[in-house]
Write a structure and sequence with these properties.
It is a single chain. Helix 5 crosses helix 17 and helix 17 packs across helix 18. Helix content is 35%, strand content 14%. The chain starts with 7 loop residues before the first helix and ends with a helix. The protein is of the alpha/beta class. The protein has 21 helices and 19 strands. Helix 5 links the parallel strand 3 and strand 4 (142-146). The radius of gyration is 25 Å and the shape is globular.
Length: 621
Amino acid sequence: MRKLALNDEILLKIEKPARYIGNEVNSVMKDKENVDVRFAMCFPDVYEIGMSHLGIQILYDMLNRRDDIWCERVYSPWIDLDKVMREEQIPLFALESQDPIKDFDFLGITIQYEMCYTNILQVLDLSQIPLLAKDRTEAHPIVIGGGPCVSNPEPIADFFDLFYIGEGETVYFELIDLYKEYKKAGRSRKEFLEAAATVEGIYVPSLYDVVYKEDGTIESFVPNHPNAQPIIKKQMVLDVTNTYYPEKPVVPFIKVTQDRVVLEIQRGCIRGCRFCQAGMLYRPTRERNLEMLKEYAVKMLENTGHEEISLSSLSSSDYSKLPELVNFLIDVCEKKKINISLPSLRIDAFSLDVMKKVQDVKKSSLTFAPEAGSQRMRDVINKGLTEEVILDGAGQAFEAGWSKVKLYFMLGLPTETEEDMKDIARLADKVARRYYEIPKDQRNGKCQITASTSFFIPKPFTPFQWATMCRKEDYLHKAHVVNHEMKEQLNHKSLKYNWHEADVTVLEGVFARGDRRVGKALLEAYRLGCIYDSWSETFRNDLWLQAFENTGIDMEFYTMRERDLDEILPWDFIDAGVTKAFLKREWNRAMNGEVTPNCREQCQGCGALKYQGGVCIESKN
């Protein structure tokens, strides 16, 4: 009988104790005496967010298929338990065994968004692991970072022993087998890290030196050890059908953000939106086999008891077997009273027909993501969506019975003018007008058009990685321009407008394109009390500003500065597939408002062809 790490007294006084007790349906229990490697897989946010993440479920299943490895889970304790653990010196523990993380061989942290960086330090701190990699000894786990944010690992480089760059299904076993070999031979932590640097896709920050110019830009970024590779190659699974995928995902005890079976139908996107990091990082687009998806859908529903299944993809409409898959799911789910969720669909006749079958039209809303209000701006970002297509889709939706539409836009995009901002409100009004063109007796009451804007953040490995950002007050001015224009529209009573927090945007921008030096500000912010920065109720911008001031780091160097196209960028040592030459070409096309065809229409020579897989070769087969 396992003993819980927290006693009853603590569990009864904290919010949602089920976050911390483990033993959920499909969680994996092993005898720790019979395994060689213990791996703690961490999502540095609260349980409800971490349990919703597909990537951890895939790696958890993959690692636990091996008898010699026990992979367990750990999440950030919420602030109530954080306080208790510090006061009572309780080390952070894994859910399955309830054992302290500090006793494990590996702590793997998936990093999905920049605003969780202070939570990474919280996890290390509560685990009683030194925050800085250089201070760790043989007694501490090897700390690994992975996920989309490690496409620029430099702001958090000082806190990690190594990073796994790319998709997790490829070289983890090679890395763990190397560790087993070194552990058995009694080799040191330092020797293991030097050997790990020879594994493709593994980046060991301590084996590289960065030199800066007087102006603050990078002079050189070079290995300081013969094992360290000058260029780290992103890892990628070419065959996404015959790879690891969980048949029995862990079922959470409490309601989580994504409380459903998630079926990843493909990886990557053919569209080439110039602001979108995922669309560039996960090239080439690779589809999963239809029969595999059918089989897994049935098994996962049976093994979890979930009442909803969601198709996961950057652009579901581009999956070539979507009609066959959806019709199969409708057949299976109708009998079992299971809901189907179809995010990231383009609104067309097929989509509307499907959604009518799987949604309550009167209650549900349809989502469009035009991203920009004007056609000029949509061409700059390569959205590939015309106003005619948007209004036609909305019209078809209204005629099919929908009356609620959500529109998503970005403010602060490169070359944006005030007219582009106002066009967000004008497009929302045109969508409302399209609704009121329907005869009154055929309408479903009044329509509600909700426009939401987030502020654009330039990300590494996108054509917009060179773009300048705005100051907080400039972002808010842009939102106020849209808000004022909304009130001027004919159908303003049918329009609603929401906008994002600007101070979070600026901070995210610093860490998205930061170098190693910003790690000092991160550490200082954590020491000042910053934690759960992606949660508005706990975000403290005043403490962040204090941290940058205390460490003498100029935020505007990372956000407002014009970058030269030939400047060495902090992430240039990573080969992510797309070439810098392609990104420069796309940046120049954006400045000229030129649209680039998608991958199926015409290959643009982005660099992903070298992988010889997915959409790059499908027309040749």
